[in-house]
Design a protein that fits this description.
alpha/beta; 248 residues; seven-stranded mixed sheet; Glycerol-3-phosphate (1)-acyltransferase
């Protein structure tokens, strides 16, 4: 795709992001949680369209909470893809809150932040997650803790699963894949790993041919007496299988 076309999409994306910021500042206080969720879902789908990405939802996302969603992590686009299927409250690294414009959008969408450099901060976040789940929220985590190249699945960290155990909340596994819209082959255009910057990843995505964002939801499950590490290993296998299923 030409640089001119990519620049046009970038300008439209910035305009759409600013419209989201304005909605949060001007109307969110007057909306019910359900109305906010629908606004976020619609905004995310529209942003994906602006970026030249078609969302494909496989399986059934939870219609309401309490539910904890666990998913593999590939890119900054993961959040748009999942929000496009169903609005959730993400747990994200604290520095996102300080990103210009993006931080305001994330905070407005209900993101919970964790200081990953402070090991004890997980205890605080688990407490807030537990409270949110008990209040009936949909919360989402990326248990790999960082993005991967999409060719495999990193080990799952188990700490945040304690919120589901403490609140008696079921967990729904899900898997993400980005693919070329023409061939269906997996695409790395949206990757965000190692030395990739957000700007580099965004520009590569804008210049890529049309993409698919495939989100496959599995069946919700309860802890069934499992402690968090055992449950994390089981969920890892579930997400791995869901990833394979997106290829079929």
């Amino acid at each position: 795709m030409s640089n001119l076309s990519a620049c046009w999409k970038l300008l439209r994306a910035i305009a759409h992001a600013l419209s989201g910021w304005w909605i949060i500042r001007s109307t969110f206080d007057r909306l019910t949680p359900q109305q906010r969720g629908e606004r976020v879902r619609r905004w995310a789908r529209e942003m994906l369209e602006v970026l030249g990405i078609r969302l494909v939802v496989q399986g059934t996302p939870a219609a309401q909470g309490p539910m904890l969603l666990v998913c593999n992590h590939l890119s900054w686009l993961d959040i748009l893809a999942i929000h496009g299927a169903q609005h959730v409250r993400f747990v994200s690294k604290a520095e996102v809150r300080r990103w210009p414009l993006i931080g305001s959008l994330a905070t407005g969408a209900g993101t919970l932040y964790i200081e990953r450099e402070r090991r004890r901060d997980a205890v605080r976040v688990v407490h807030h997650m537990t409270e949110a789940l008990r209040n009936g929220d949909l919360v989402a985590i990326f248990p790999e803790g960082t993005t991967s190249d999409g060719h495999g699945l990193l080990p799952f960290h188990a700490n945040l699963l304690q919120a589901a155990i403490s609140s008696g909340t079921p967990v729904q596994p899900a898997a993400l894949r980005f693919a070329d819209a023409t061939t269906g082959e997996s695409s790395t255009a949206a990757r965000y790993i190692d030395d990739d910057s957000l700007a580099t990843s965004l520009w590569r995505t804008l210049r890529a041919p049309p993409l698919l964002a495939i989100v496959r939801f599995g069946e919700p499950q309860s802890a069934q007496g499992r402690e968090r590490r055992t449950w994390a290993r089981s969920l890892h296998e579930d997400v791995q299988q869901l990833r394979r299923d997106t290829l079929s």
